[in-house]
Amino acid sequence: xxxINAGGNSSIVxxxxxxxxxxxxxxxxxxxxxxxxxxxxxxHLVDPVGGGAGAVxxxxxxxxxxxxxxxxxxxxxxxxVKNAGPILxxxxxxxxxxxxxxxxxxxxxxxxxxxxxxxxxxxxxxxSITVHEHRCSAVAVKRLxxxxxxxxxxxxxxxxxxxxxxCTGHGHNRLDEREQTTLxxxxxxxxxxxxxxxxxxxxxxxxxxxxxxxxxxxVRGMGLSANDIVAALTTGRGGAFFRTxxxxxxxxxxxxxxxxxxxSRTSIPFSARAINQKGVDGxxxxxxxxxEAVDHxxxxxxxxxxxxxxxxxxxxxxxxxxxxxGARGEETASLIANGPRADEVAAVKQLFETPHADEFNxxxxxxxxxxRSMQEDLAAALRGNIDDPIKAATDVIRDxxxxxxxxxxxxxLTPASYREFLSQFIPAMNRIAxxxxxxxxxxxxxxxxxxxxxxxGGPGAALVFDDTTGCFTIHTRFxxxxxxxxxxxxxxxxxxxxxITLDESPLLRSMCGAGLIRAYSNGGIAPGGIDIDENNHxxxxxxxxxxxxxxxxxxxxxxxxxxxxxxxxxxxxRFIQDAGRAVVQVLDSVRAKHSAQATSPVL
Length: 603
Hints:
By secondary structure, this protein is α/β, with parallel strands linked by helices.
């Protein structure tokens, strides 16, 4: 079989044209309109879904919401983005949708925005370079003696790539041992309980339509995915919310909802996003948790790898105390000289901590505590992410994320500290800083009041298979009693983590087998993503960077940190920086190659 090539042209292949692939297109488009795009380029876009939306947002129901306000989402670079090539301003999601910047839009709208951007970029680029769209998957990559690569597609001729971008996004993993054991048990439990089902994945949520309305559903996880599952089983089944004349949110059942029980390791719901008082570009500028402070910690330790709890957490706490004082109208100058007071440190640390089951007599006491905490969280969220001390403090974590990346990425933490960071800090950070829109927490309160949604257990709730009844049972041992809930259906509420050892992708399996990529590891701690260098080049099995391949986004989670967020305007977006640097490297290489060819003597 022959390869599609460009003769004497330079070929770029982008595998995956969801958000990260769109980022590459946006940077190529900017070079095109600014007149800095070399001639004789051929661009191949490989994506089975196509259109820019990616599989994550394709055909999602309207009741699934983005958890970021529309004004803080864009796919275009702006004047704050540095070292990423030409800047050509384009509309943010809010501007494109013509909505208030603080609106939480359905994810379908986000998908339409991405499709608009994709079509716009492709049409503009097609006037200057040759663009081929391939509605299929890439299944293998082969290294060529020329230094380029051959990309095999699931159908059609393979592509010749001088430059290859892997922007494959969220993968589909084969079941791990725990999931497979649960699935096998559920398959046998049907003999005793016809309603028994296990959903190791919750997306697309439409597959949950198969759950009977008279079933009892246990949802394992209480984060963003759990919000989607609960929405699918309530408003997605015809239920409706309304507001009373006193302003309280109430839920009217449709009669098609199953009984829903939620639980997690902590059994604490994610905190609500506060009303945004920072506008599109407002962002706390770090005073303590700076890159200079990270460098100083490394110098003090005498090595690059540092300890998060010892070297970084005190800086983050001090940063959070700073904004808490500001929200309360208290003085902040003494923080630099004296540091935070003991009570302030304790208050911030308390945000990261969760209660233990033995602190409560029984499930009734624990449920009352959770409902009260949710109501207090809603009141804080209404005060806003500047005016409320707690919400201002937790929003600092989002605002200093780039400095966290600087400290953590490329094995910046010792292995022991990295393990603790993954298992303890990231779950806590997600719970308090990157939760759902405020409306979702208010809906959960209304659903609990209507008796549709309940807690399945408390902290440390354990899942037990009941062989006699064919039910999933959730057990929590409180101070004075044990609480047990039985469910017919179990749904795991989580996004599959990046894992090149578990991913079912033929492409990643092929590249692993060929030694073109390897899993990232920090002293044996391997979160699952692809190992890359600081320029997003994958490292092969020998640790050598492949200079004409770039991997961007979720597949690099581990070597990089928090890769699954979209660009935010006016904050020098890391997403756009990564795309821009990679495109600049490609175009510089193309120009150098063409220049060398032009000056070579004719023999």
